[in-house]
Amino acid sequence: MPSKTPHNNAAKDGDDSMTVVVPPSKSSKQPAPSTDAEGDVAMDVDKTEEEKVDPAVQAVADIKANFALLDRAVALFDARFSLRALRSISLIRKHLSPDVIAQAIADTFPATSASGSIAKSLLAAVGREDVALGRAAGAEMEVDSDAKAAKNGTSKKEVKEIIPEIDVFLGILVQVYLFDAKKYQQGADFSKYLSDRIQTLNRRTLDCLSAKVYFYFSLFCEYIVPLPPSPESPIVAIRPTLLAVLRTAVLRKDTDTQASVIVLLLRNYLLTSHIKQADLLVSHTQFPENAANNQVARFLYYLGRIRAIQLRYTEAHEHLTAATRKAPSSGCAVGFSQTATKLLLVVELLMGDIPDRATFRQPSLEDALHPYFLLVRAVRVGNLEDFETTIADNADIFKRDGTYTLILRLRQNVIKTGIRMMSLSYSRISLRDICIRLHLGSEESAEYIVAKAIRDGVIEATLDREKGFMKSKEVGDVYATREPGEAFHDRIRACLALHDESVKAMRFPMNQHRLELKNAQEAREREREMAKEIQEGDLDDDDLGGDLDGM
Q: Quick one: pLDDT at residue 114?
């Protein structure tokens, strides 16, 4: 007690030196957070900055995370997991490099795996043949139960084999890297090797992956010199390969590969202007009904282009309208929407219709469709001079879009539109005035064009050849005809078709009906057993859940 008195007195006097000589406790030896708030914040910020993940390391982790999805796709026989892995490529490709791909391959394939030759081929494609396999897999290989080793009488570690879906997925990443690096010839050679390997594997879980492999195979050949439409282009040489793949896909009922290869063949024929062969392919093959929505949109676009070239504008308009409606609304498909809309606008003009002005006001289409807006404006007013000026100024854009030859057909439509505008404005107009307004060469040409417009039903008028004028008839009420009802019927039919396609595209868990059937069978078995026990009198009062004394 006497020894405590000075300590208490010192504390009351405010002597701070006594707190310094106090021996630290055991808990104080461990690092503790400082009481300084500002110091704590600074230390946390530094730690956060130091713990930033390297993009290459994160890319390798993202690649390896997709392997679990591929394993589930094989185990459950559900292609949706494989599609999820393919959708992640758009995020991974930003950080793809030979080192990232080599690291993922080395971490995936153990050194003693039977798939070592496949791994070496993947590494050779990215120029990393000297990378050793099994670096990250060593920790897993060292973990082995002693009982299993004693039972086998050896210390050899068991190595899990890599399923083909994983190495094909890595091969697709190699294709993506080679395409982004513009190594088209090397990519075509590697794609040939990858397609040959897929042909040796008859696995339905590889369907969506093989479709992506053939897509990049065809894409590589399009960029190899000589470029299409040259007959010496490599895309002509791969047609037998694609046709053989299509036959195999039909026999194996491979819907994904079948839809993808049909679209690739149509694109192949159109690039070299083999329209007749493309039409024969469409007539002799059946596009799968349950194909992916993206492939259906591409097929409808190419089919619409074929029909437009064949002067079958009504069918082309139906196909292109369906293609634009099926196009994804996200920003990833802006290019396809622009291309399909451009062709759709030209087809509408060839049909004699004027596209809606709201189409050109969409933010994603406004800049791309500006030349077509000038074209539509010239056709709408029937000004042949503005029409020819627009074509001359934007000829390069129209040729790049593949619509130049179709636009040249619009000259007669511009003349017919001009005649129609004059027939609505004047009850009678001379052929000389028509010739001057439409910039035609002679009155005989004006007379021929007016006569053809009357025969085609473009205008309601009569032609007086002796006096040289055109006399318009009175325009009746359009609502007294069947035209509004037919237009309303077409819209209803389009909505019903869209509803039917949406129902067909719905997906449900695999074998769910079998699980429900199994549960129903088990319930019936329990009911039979209970009925049998009731008949035999084996059930007592407690089993039935009630007291039977009152009965």
A: 61
